[in-house]
Amino acid sequence: MKNKLLSLCFGALLCNLIPSVSYAVSDTAESDTVMVNKTGSGIETSAIAPVLSLPTLQKLQWQPINTQATQTISLNGSSQRLNAENIRGAIATFALPANQGSLEVTLNSLVKDKQVYSPNVLIFDEQLRPAAFYPSHYFRYQQPGIMSADRLEGTLKLTPALGQQRIYLLVYTTLADLKTSTQITDPAKAYAQGVGNVVPNIPDPIARHTETGTLALQIKSERDAGNILIGQIFSTPAPKPLTVGSAQTLSAPVITPATVTSQPATTTIKPVLNDTEQYFNDAIKKAISNSDIDKALKLLDEAERLGSPTARETFIKMIKNKK
């Protein structure tokens, strides 16, 4: 039975030698998260990325972050700041590994003393070109749990293009965010819900948005499809970052055309890093050796979507040897 299944997979693969390309995220995706002002009425927040020059981005200090680790960051008066457009208060800047496959990034902004930092996130590739924009309303309020506090939370699924060593993540808040607030769950209600008691009929408090706060950042390798590609294989005109969780399109790219042209142009595919290429090939071999053909096919699809020239050959050889 196993040999028959492997034969069917191998035959289907040979009949379709052109890899498929899928796009799982649209720039018209909507979020049902709504911020509230201090009176509790619903308002919509702006979802326009700021215009930042390349020299401004290069002057920032980007903190390296490793996978499989949770980093807690305190944003206070001594944190970095950006004097640009309507950005206000402290910012956080991170350099993420780009040669370890796809990444799942979970960002939490913790509520403390009825105050919370309302984050916006910009993602840049290795050349500090814009790739994705997550407006503040993408980060939704989460009630406290046994091991977690009140927080604004969002998960970012990113796939760095091959040939990069790192990508960059900028967290900031805006003047518009500071004019809004978030309704949180009263602790007595949260406790009653957790233990199954009758929920008391009491009003929920409001968390004021502030220029400082506490962030928790967790990064792990991620194998699911549907991620946002960070970086370019071919050179293109000045790009616009993909807005996630907003129906509003961006009015301007994050980096102006004048700054993008300062980057050296190329018309060829970037060379694939040996360790990145080896990473996918080894993972495909291991999956097939364990008879996990479905996982091997997913790895093959992801590798070829990123431009791998050897993943298909590795898959075919392993299937032949398995037979």
- Would you give the CATH topology of the domain at 54-221? Jelly Rolls
Class based on secondary structure composition and strand pairing: alpha+beta
- Total of helices: 8
Helix content: 10-25%
Secondary-structure element order, N to C: HEEHEEEEEEEEEEHEHEEEEHHHH
Signal peptide: 1-24
Protein name: Maltose operon protein
Pfam families: MalM
Keywords: Signal
Describe, in plain words, how this protein is organized in 3D.
This protein is α+β, with helices and mostly antiparallel strands. Among the domains are: 54-221, Sandwich (Jelly Rolls), CATH 2.60.120; 274-321, no CATH class. The chain has helices at residues 2-14, 54-58, 175-178, 187-195, 257-260, 274-289, 293-305, 311-322, and strands at 35-36, 42-43, 63-64, 69-75, 87-97, 103-110, 115-116, 120-124, 130-134, 140-142, 151-160, 166-174, 181-183, 206-209, 213-221, 228-230, 242-243. The strands form four sheets. Strands 3-5-12-8-9-17 form a six-stranded mixed sheet. Helix 6 (274-289) packs parallel to helix 8. InterPro entries: MalM. Pfam families: MalM (PF07148).
